[in-house]
Each structure stands twice: as structure tokens, then as C-alpha cells.
Specification:
Elements lengths: L5 E5 L3 H10 L3 E8 L4 E7 L7 E7 L13 E6 L2 H10 L4 E3 L6 E5 L5 E6 L19
Parallel strand pairs: 1-4, 5-8
Antiparallel strand pairs: 2-3, 3-4, 6-7, 7-8
Length: 138
Amino acid sequence: MTKYLHTMIRVSDPDATIRFFELLGLREIRRMENEKGRFTLIFLAAPGDEDAAVELTHNWDQQGYSGGRNFGHLAYRVDDIYATCQRLMDAGVTINRPPRDGHMAFVRTPDNISIELLQDGHLPPAEPWASMPNIGEW
């Protein structure tokens, strides 16, 4: 039997990335510091869904990452896609693909990793989302 454990992404600013994921409702569930290897592993998950974690890997000597698009994306189901996107926008996050259809949106982490937000089902189209254009790649 195979069981999903987590998805790992490398991050240059753990605090900024944790703040981003906290806006989506994830919380830190464990952290491991490795002085010899000079890295930190931080695991985040939605409360009650700890089996679906994202692992943030911070290599202490790394100066930053580029090319986050080659990763693909992480996907999270949200209770209210409009409220989630508004909360992210209010915190300064760009909504790259707005939830025009009341079902799907894309945003990016501070390290340019795409995050797909999915509504369970579809909410009726609502402004300002219905008429918002895509911003950049998603």
C-alpha cells in the first residue's frame, strides 16, 4: 500500500513562507534543525489533515531560488474560495488566476511556487472576481 506523506518545497525565507501558508489555514506541526547539514525542515498541515503535510526545506547557506514554475503546484480545497482569495489579497498576495468560476484560483508563495485553490463544488460567480483578468502566469 502506498500512502501520501508530504510535498517538499525549498524556501529562502521560512518566516515569509510560513506566514503565507498560515493565511491558507495551515499550521506548523513539527520542525527539525540539522546543524551539521545546515538545514531546517518545517512541516505544515491543515488542522485535522496532518497526513497531508507540506515540508519546507530551508538550506541555511542558500541565497534564494529561481524557477519555482518547474515544480508544478500544490493544491488545497478551501471552504470559501472568495473569502480565501480576499484574505490573501488583503495580506498583499497577488491572485494570479482569480476564482471567476467560483471554483478555482491560483496564487504563488514568496518563492514563486504555484498554489491551486479549489472550492468544493462551485460558488455562484461574484464580483470583483468574475471580471478580474489573470495576472502573470499561474
